[in-house]
Write a structure and sequence with these properties.
The protein has 90 residues and is mainly alpha-helical. 53% of the residues lie in helices and 4% in strands. The chain has three helices and two strands, in the order H-H-E-E-H. The protein has helices spanning 2-21, 33-43, 73-89, and strands at 53-54, 57-58. A two-stranded antiparallel sheet has the order 1-2. The termini are far apart.
């Protein structure tokens, strides 16, 4: 049980560090999927990237998983450009 928590904390630390290294403006960790979805609605879904995983897989409807390899500058930029197009079309 403790090993899973330690691995999760290390993984989360790597993801947050990589996100900031690649110019993320802010990272808001939450414990539950429902909290992330609620926060995304409050902040405006098109203004954020939802990132996370459960049981080793990206959460359905989220933009990225918890792999720090996914948080590259070009990937984040592309997602932001797509979100801005969606916002502009509305």
């Amino acid at each position: 049980m403790y090993e899973n928590n330690i691995v999760g904390i290390i993984k989360m630390s790597r993801v947050i560090t990589t996100a900031f290294t690649n110019r993320a403006k802010e990272v808001i960790p939450v414990a539950e999927i429902e909290d992330a979805v609620r926060l995304a609605k409050y902040l405006g879904r098109n203004n954020i990237l939802l990132c996370g995983e459960r049981n080793g897989a990206k959460i359905e409807g989220f933009d990225l998983s918890n792999s720090h390899f996914e948080y590259k500058v070009d990937v984040v930029k592309k997602l932001w450009k797509e979100m801005q197009k969606f916002t502009t079309l509305k």
